[in-house]
């Protein structure tokens, strides 16, 4: 499948909401992927939403790829799938410290015993 029989968009495609500085400057897309999104993104969006009907075999295959992402063959299809995941999926957020629930906090008390006061007795013995 090539991009030759895939219609370019009527206008350049930009996603200023999620990629304010551009696709390539986001660090997620290469310059070639950015070019594909800008040139064909308008058509891909319209095909995906059903605003326009597919006219070529590439456009029919593109719609099949959207339904089942495992069969992406062309660079155009792979780039659009990548865009969908980055723009629409929830972003993963990792934190260094988390909040413990009450059940986790109470189970952590088992690390301490009543013998923890032994160190205090040693300090008292040295003073007297």
Automatic annotation (TrEMBL):
<protein>
    <recommendedName>
        <fullName>Macrodomain Ori protein</fullName>
    </recommendedName>
</protein>
<dbReference type="Pfam" id="PF04219">
    <property type="entry name" value="DUF413"/>
</dbReference>
<dbReference type="InterPro" id="IPR007335">
    <property type="entry name" value="DUF413"/>
</dbReference>
<feature type="compositionally biased region" description="Acidic residues">
    <location>
        <begin position="105"/>
        <end position="128"/>
    </location>
</feature>
<comment type="similarity">
    <text>Belongs to the MaoP family.</text>
</comment>
<feature type="region of interest" description="Disordered">
    <location>
        <begin position="95"/>
        <end position="128"/>
    </location>
</feature>
């Amino acid at each position: 499948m090539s991009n030759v029989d895939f219609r370019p968009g009527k206008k350049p495609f930009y996603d200023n909401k999620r990629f304010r500085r551009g696709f390539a400057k986001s660090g997620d897309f290469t310059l070639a992927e950015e070019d594909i999104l800008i040139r064909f993104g308008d058509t891909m969006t319209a095909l995906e939403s059903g605003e326009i009907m597919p006219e070529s075999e590439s456009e029919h295959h593109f719609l099949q790829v959207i339904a089942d992402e495992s069969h992406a063959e062309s660079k155009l299809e792979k780039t659009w799938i990548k865009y969908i995941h980055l723009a629409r999926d929830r972003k993963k957020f990792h934190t260094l410290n988390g909040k413990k629930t009450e059940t986790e906090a109470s189970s952590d008390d088992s690390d301490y015993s009543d013998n923890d006061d032994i160190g205090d007795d040693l300090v008292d013995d040295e003073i007297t």
